[in-house]
Amino acid sequence: MNFSEGRQNFSKEIARSDSQIDLAKATLYIAQEEYPVLDIEKYLNALDMMAEELQERLPQTSYPLKIIQSINQYLFDELGFQGNTSNYYDLRNSFLNDVIDRRTGIPISLSVIYLEVAKRIDFPMLGIGMPGHFLIRPDFEYVGIFVDVFERGEILFVQDCEERLRQIYQQPVQLESHFLDPVKNKQILARMLTNLKFIYINKQELLKAIAAVERILLLFPSNQRELRDKGLLYYQLGEWVQAFQELDLYLTNFPDAEDADIIRNLLDKIKIFM
Question: Strand 125-128's sheet: what is its strand order?
């Protein structure tokens, strides 16, 4: 199978150990599958330039809150980055090149820009994959603060994170400690691709949804849900042979899955069309 340049670049980048993955490059390679002639270097240079300009604005003291304040002022006040509250599910919110060009994104894409700029000024930060919302925090032990990039870099404490969850789900939510655990680069990439997958499904662009699933499986080959969904998407397309192969593989890997009987019945139906 001949994969696109974006897919090949993505595969090579994520083959590194997680800590060595260049998050900016990997997210741009995701976008390259949508924009085949994307100039990757242009956007990497844009991030470098942001960091250079920010460096000149940093306070002399290295107190984390002061540095975060400087980053916020630069990204949100000077450059005008903002969360897209009017069209949250616009595909462009998930492609790093579009987010840089339009200064508009969703929590995770804006967070990637923030993380990458912070990395370039030697202020390491970590992604926090809280359910329903993506946050970041400085990579210092016991710092106890979180940054909501979607809300212009608002500083949150643990109790604020619980309140943010309540706002998202419109009901009381118990904040479990693992909700605030840092996530690795591969998890960030998978979350971005999952967003794309569901947007494509809602737009009925099922081949592109499958492409998102395939890249999630490159990151996590044994992901149970994605193995199943790949087969179900082929089923929706009427690609019976491919659907049968993928769903049969799913049952082989997860014979005791909760939906195993449903999938077996579906395989019986598919056989009629093959």
Answer: 154-156, 146-148, 135-138, 125-128, 182-183
Q: Which residue has the tokens 């998102």?
A: 212
List the structure tokens of 23: 């998050």
Which pLDDT value is given to residue 110?
Answer: 98
What is the share, in percent, of the chain residues with pLDDT greater than 90? 87
**Dist CA 77 CA 69 (whole Å):** 11
Q: Is the dihedral of CA 223, 175, 94, 85 positive or negative?
A: positive
Q: Identify whether the C-beta of residue 209 lies closer than 8 Å to the C-beta of residue 203.
A: no
Listed in sequence order, the DSSP H helices in 95-143 are: 96-102, 107-120
Q: What is the 3-state secondary structure (H, E, C) of 197-256?
A: HHHHHHCCCHHHHHHHHHHHHHHCCCCHHHHHHHHHHHHHHCCHHHHHHHHHHHHHHCCC
Cβ–Cβ < 8 Å for 130, 161: yes
Q: What is the mean pLDDT of residues 19-31?
A: 98
